[in-house]
Design goal:
This protein is an all-alpha fold. 49% of the residues lie in helices and 0% in strands. The radius of gyration is 23 Å and the shape is flat.
């Protein structure tokens, strides 16, 4: 059975294809400018307020640090990636 003949693939073949990469320099510049503008806006005070960002606020009292569960998750993720030498435990 060929994958291209599978009924699910025939419904929307364009969905499975990555979007075309713009090759015209003007489109590349426009795409980069759009991404940069969006990033800058949502990093600004107005943008962070719009999305309800709650960061950059000091925690009252002593910082409790990561939980044991968080450390276990990190240790497993590092082990799965073959990076156990960088684990905290």
């Amino acid at each position: 059975m060929q994958h291209s003949n599978h009924p699910r693939l025939q419904i929307a073949p364009g969905v499975l294809q990555p979007p075309p990469t713009p090759r015209v320099p003007e489109l590349l510049v426009a795409a980069a400018a759009k991404k940069l503008g969006i990033t800058a806006y949502f990093a600004s005070p107005q943008g962070t307020k719009e999305i309800g960002y709650q960061g950059n606020v000091p925690l009252p009292g002593d910082y409790p640090g990561p939980t044991e569960e968080a450390f276990a998750h990190l240790d497993k993720a590092l082990a799965d990636l073959g990076l156990s030498e960088y684990a905290y435990s």
